Amino acid sequence: MEEGNKIPKSASSRLCCRCNERKPALKRPKTLEQICRKCFYEVFEEEIHQVIVGNQLFKAGERVAIGASGGKDSTVLAYVMSELNRRHNYGLDLFLLSVDEGITGYRDDSLETVKRNEVQYGLPLKIVSYKELYGWTMDEIVKVIGLKNNCTFCGVFRRQALDRGAAYLKVDKLVTGHNADDIAETVLLNILRGDVARLSRCTSITTGEDGPIPRCKPFKYTYEKEIVMYAYFKKLDYFSTECIYSPNAYRGFAREFIKDLERIRPRAIVDIIKSGENFRISTSTKMPEQGTCERCGYISSQKWCKACVLLEGLNRGLPKLGIGRSRGLENGNGNRKDMEQNGDVRSIESKQCGSLDF
Amino acid sequence: MRCSESVGCPWSDVACCYWIYCSGGLELLCDSVKMHNVNVDLENGLEQLTMKDLLAWARTNLIKERPEMFMKGDTVRPGVLVLVNDCDWELSGQLDTTLQEKDVVVFISTLHGG
Q: Where does this protein reside within or beyond the cell (chain A) (predicted)?
């Protein structure tokens, strides 16, 4: 909207562009519209409903677990999902599923929030913990591996933990609160890392349909700013602290860049997602084939799934096992320290397919 | 200039007093205090306080550690939302937004896990 020479202190000279009755409360980054609170709730909820229906995310009668961490995205997701389920009669059985990684001062606090959400939204809650599933908490893992590559362990373990929890609850689908900003960051991250295989998958709204539990992201086109504003105006209860191990994560660089981009041109975020969706991978690129892990039966493109490789490393005191790329094989030198330690390692750590070789 | 945790405003007869509310993790930069009642002196020649002035003031007087998590240059770090009287500051001119006494400014950081 154009600004006059004298900018009024309040926006009282302009009205909500949708209802033309009320004073606008925010400027939507997606559309640059100035919109009042009530209209904002309506468009926010309606757009998510359209994403759910348009992409046929659910079928009536399905049991659906909501990945809940107690943070802003998952709290708003739980709220909106139960509201839309009721309003539009999706006919879904909703559950909250939470993962306890064992990070003191972070996860123990946010789990309290999820327990409150269970009561506030009336959704049954299941918590799975790394300690139970793997015998290690993140705090213990970090003590062994140091402050680098923590997110690799945590992310891999969490993915499996969610699947295990979902299997326990006997749900048909898992939903997570990944928002537009997250997905744009992931697209950038995969480009920066040259990970062609992941690049082709990361913008799909539903993933893992050929695996144990399909998972979908109803917030795929929802801006983080709008999620936070929604939660603020509706006074939703969420926990907001950065994981204590995250400052060293590579994703932080992508996030910084995306945020700077958003400031200059907010539509850049959905545009990046659109570009990500439009990538076509050349058929001559070798892509990983899907099989199952020999040790635990979980879905995997290598002999052992990543979680088993990482766990093996932890339990044997080889924290670097499964971390980083195996350069030796590409050059044919084969002089890698790991191979000297144990002949078995070579078969576990085969070359990662679908990665760009420079 | 003082920050106070008390809910009541100790300077009700003084102009230029504002409420600042920090959330989304920003409160950790202010000794974990969310609500602040502040009194900001206007510089000579200025009739009204703008958000730009308030931010500069906050950086010096409110933020006790890691100012780079709150501000980048003259403005807030990208990812920090600003509301003046529960309205997005993008509607009122961002840094040029002028403030009146008893206005409530809310800073919400979005830079954490969801």
A: Cytoplasm
Nearest CA in chain A to B87: A25
- A62's tokens: 């399905």
Helix axes A37-54 and A224-233, enclosed angle (nearest 10): 130
Q: Which residues of B touch A69 (CB under 8 A)?
A: 113-114
Residues of B in contact with A240 (CB under 8 A): 23-25, 109, 112
Chain B, 48-77: which have a CB under 8 Å from a chain A CB? 77
CB of A235 within 8 Å of a chain B CB? The answer is: no
DSSP A355: B
Q: Cβ separation of A73 and B114 shorter than 8 Å?
A: yes
Answer whether A244's CB lies under 8 Å from A105's CB.
yes
No. of H helices and E strands in chain A?
A: 15, 10
User: What is the pLDDT tens value at each position of chain B, 114 positions in all?
Assistant: 233 333 444 544 445 678 999 988 888 888 888 899 988 877 766 778 899 989 999 999 889 888 888 999 989 999 999 999 999 999 999 999 999 888 999 999 988 776
Contact list in A for residue B100 (CB cut-off 8 A) is 9
Q: ipTM of the assembly? A: 0.86
A279, B75, B81, B82 from B89: Cα distances, Å: 37, 12, 8, 6
The CB-based long-range contact list for A188-191 (8 Å cut-off, 24+ gap) reads A188/A254, A188/A257, A188/A258, A188/A272, A189/A250, A189/A251, A189/A254
Q: Nearest 5 degrees, angle CA A229-CA B96-CA A33?
A: 40
A99 is in an annotated binding site: yes
Q: Report residue A329 as tokens.
A: 């094989």
Closest chain B C-alpha to A110 CA, distance in angstroms? 10
Q: Cα distance from A329 to chain B (closest Cα, Å)?
A: 37
| Residue A278 one-letter amino acid | N
With an 8 Å Cβ cutoff, are A10 and B87 in contact? Answer: yes
With contacts defined as CB-CB under 8 Å, which chain A residues touch B96? Answer: 7
Query: Which amino acid is present at B53?
Result: D
A203-249 confidence digits (pLDDT tens): 999 998 877 899 999 999 999 999 999 999 999 989 887 787 777 77
